[in-house]
Amino acid sequence: MSDLPTSIVIHEEGPREGFQIEPAGIATADKIALVDALSATGMPAIQVCSSVAPRRVPGWHDAEAVVAGFTPREGLRYDALCFDARGLHRAQPFAERLELLGSIAPSASEPFSRANLARDHAASRRRS
User: Fold this and answer.
1) How far apart are alpha carbons 48 and 105 in whole angstroms?
2) What is the pLDDT of residue 19?
3) Local structure of 63: helix, strand or coil
4) Quick check: 113 pLDDT over 80?
5) 50: closest CA among 97, 77, 23, 18?
6) Does 48 map to a domain?
7) CA distance 70 to 42
8) Distances in Å between the alpha carbon of 36 and those of 30, 51, 79, 81?
9) Number of structural domains, the chain?
10) What is the pLDDT of residues 36-93, one digit of tens each?
């Protein structure tokens, strides 16, 4: 008997991670088209967007439009990354389309925490 798993689960984070790092930005319609194309592959879970402050992550200024625009497929789970209560409040109107899960994702880098979360590690721990 093998000790290898009998299956794996792929949780696609490409839309969320990829769209937020593009300096020139990506059109909302193109973001929606990619989420729909990924949905057609049959993977079980897609992280659609970051529900973050647009001034911190300008690539996700249109998170609400992307979530409202993609076509959900039966049996697939869609979610969004929320770093704090404000992000959760921004995503809540889409609870019918997104699975809203709470999680803690600590950053290993103090500069990343300051740039992306607008707080240092100590402040992040106090907010968690």
Assistant:
1) 17
2) 81
3) helix
4) no
5) 18
6) yes
7) 15
8) 10, 19, 14, 18
9) 1
10) 999 999 889 999 988 888 888 888 899 999 999 999 999 999 998 887 788 888 889 9
- Of residues 88, 84, 81, 91, the one with CA closest to residue 119: 84
pTM given for the model:
0.76
Q: Which are the contacts of 70, defined by CB distance < 8 A and separation ≥ 6?
A: 32, 35, 36, 39, 48, 78, 97
Residue 97 lies in a domain: yes
Range of the domain at 86: 11-103
- Helix ranges (H only) for the chain are 14-21, 28-39, 63-69, 85-91, 110-112, 121-127
| Average pLDDT of the chain to the nearest whole number | 83
State percent of the chain over pLDDT 90: 30
Residue type, 91: A
Query: Is 107 a residue whose pLDDT tops 80?
Result: no
Q: Would residue 121 count as lying in a domain?
A: no
In-domain check, residue 1:
no
Instruction: At 77, list the tokens.
Output: 């789970």
**Radius of gyration of the chain, Cα coordinates, nearest whole angstrom:** 16
Residue tagged 């950053």 (tokens): 107
